[in-house]
Amino acid sequence: ECELPNRNLYEFAGTLKINSAAFPIPLGADQILLRGSQLKNTAWIYGIVIYSGHDTKLMMNSSSVPLKRTNVEQVTNKQILFLLIILIVLCLFSTIAGEVWSYRNKDTHWYLGYNLDEDRETWRHIGFTFLTFFILFNNLIPISLQITVDLVKFIQAYFINW
């Protein structure tokens, strides 16, 4: 008999009951080998597997590796997010200004083909105008910056291992 699986590596409580023995033999942390241990300078042993798989003490203590990001990546991501917010605000402002101009000049600039009488056409036009400005201003966000940072890291790792 032994304790239920737990995370404590340095404690173990159990008893070994042998039919011919009058009393059970107590087992402690000195009589246990954890997963991955190597036993040396011993001719032979008796062993019993207590827990296996995900119930082992080492597996219960292991955790997933956290995602490591450098300070440069964190600052770069924050600034790219800030630039995205600026881009959206700029596109909204430009869309509103463009729609105001279209509304004021739809009679004098008839050749542009603005038919803003129906609500559905108006919202479609506003959406297309926003997308147009988004495409025009998309160079505000440096997409190649992340690729360049990764390329520099790769080259530095190559030279460090050289």
Q: What features would you describe in this structure?
A:
The chain crosses the membrane at residues 80-103, 123-141. Keywords: Membrane, Transmembrane, Transmembrane helix. InterPro entries: ATPase_P-typ_TM_dom_sf (IPR023298). GO terms for molecular function: ATPase-coupled intramembrane lipid transporter activity. It is a single chain. This protein has 162 residues and is mostly helical. The chain has two domains: 14-61, no CATH class; 71-161. It is built from four helices and two strands; from the N terminus they run ββαααα. β1 and β2 (25-27) form a beta hairpin. The longest helix is centred in the middle third of the chain and has 35 residues, at 71-105.
Shape: elongated
| Rg from Cα | 35 Å
How many separate domains make up the residues?
2
Q: Helix tally?
A: 4
Low-confidence stretches: none
> Biggest sheet, strands in spatial order?
1-2
Strand content: under 5%
N-C termini distance: 55 Å
Structural class: mainly alpha
Q: Could you estimate the helical fraction of the residues in percent?
A: 40-55%
Strand tally is: 2
Q: Largest sheet, if any?
A: 2 strands, antiparallel
Summarize the helix and strand pattern as letters.
EEHHHH
Q: Taking all residues together, what is the mean pLDDT? A: 83
